[in-house]
Design brief:
It is built from 10 helices and 8 strands. By secondary structure, the protein is an alpha/beta fold. Bound molecules: SN-glycerol-1-phosphate.
């Protein structure tokens, strides 16, 4: 089944998913990925996302090869720019940064990437990317040269998501930015979730099982966990248990 179909089906059923985000920039040696990948396989992680707002290394291909050698879940590119297309992945979040007003990230990079994507097998996942303020400036806010939506401007985020859905985007990604001081708050997630029918991805600063549960409870269909696993990969088990437990309650209904 295609990734988008699967996310849409699960979202309709109320089932949740979890993705681990790997930033190639943090990987000096691909062997360092193996413990996390072992846990990801044991813990039934649904997707591995690969990318970062500033990828300065040229090892994306090696990182993806290592992932593919160790685990079987789909690898989804989470690119900071059109330069980060790697055809050996399974899919790409085709992100339009709709919370910002930087034309290059709304449509410019996409024009450059389109002919490349047309000629390879990556599943293209049209995604409205909404950056929410989370305290100190995140790399993604700085690099993208955009202003995140203030974390208490719920209607602004909801209208942005609605516009993205009306433009035909198939997923909405609410992101506080990698390593965010504050994760996206529950009221923000709930408000956005209620405003659209497409599956909702939530990430940025989810670094405890409780925060993961809060995001699921508020309406996230897919949570993305990155930063915290770089130092404490073992936390993945507890966090993914929250998703597993949630889905168990759906199964028995
Ligand atoms: C960042 O949503 C992702 O874009 C994941 O964030 O690295 O803070 O988990 P963390």
């Amino acid at each position: 089944m295609k990734i988008l179909d699967s996310l849409q089906t699960k979202s309709k059923q109320g089932k949740k998913s979890i993705a681990v985000l790997i930033d190639p920039d943090k990987i000096n040696n691909t062997a360092q990925l193996e413990p996390l990948l072992r846990l990801a396989a044991e813990d039934c992680v649904d997707y591995i996302f690969v990318g970062g707002s500033l990828v300065t290394t040229t090892n994306i291909g090696d990182v993806i090869r290592t992932i593919k050698e160790n685990v079987s879940m789909p690898v989804v590119l989470f690119p900071g720019s059109a330069l980060q297309i790697e055809p050996t992945a399974d899919a790409i979040l085709f992100l339009s940064l709709i919370s910002g007003r930087n034309p290059d990230l709304l449509i410019g990079q996409h024009v450059v990437a389109a002919p490349i994507l047309k000629n390879n097998k990556l599943e293209v996942l049209p995604t409205g990317y909404i950056l929410i303020n989370s305290g100190k400036t995140t790399s993604v806010a700085y690099i993208s040269n955009t202003t995140p939506i203030p974390e208490d401007k719920y209607a602004l985020a909801a209208c942005t998501a609605m516009a993205g859905e009306m433009l035909g985007l198939k997923l909405i990604y609410l992101d506080a930015g990698s390593g965010a001081e504050r994760e996206v708050n529950q009221k923000m997630i709930t408000t956005v979730k209620k405003s659209v029918d497409v599956p909702l991805i939530v990430g940025g600063g989810i670094n405890t099982p409780q925060k993961a549960f809060n995001a699921l409870q508020a309406g996230a269909d897919l949570i993305v966990i990155g930063n915290v696993l770089e130092k404490t990969p073992d936390l993945l088990t507890e966090i993914s248990d929250k998703v597993y437990d949630w889905n168990q309650t759906i199964n028995v209904k």
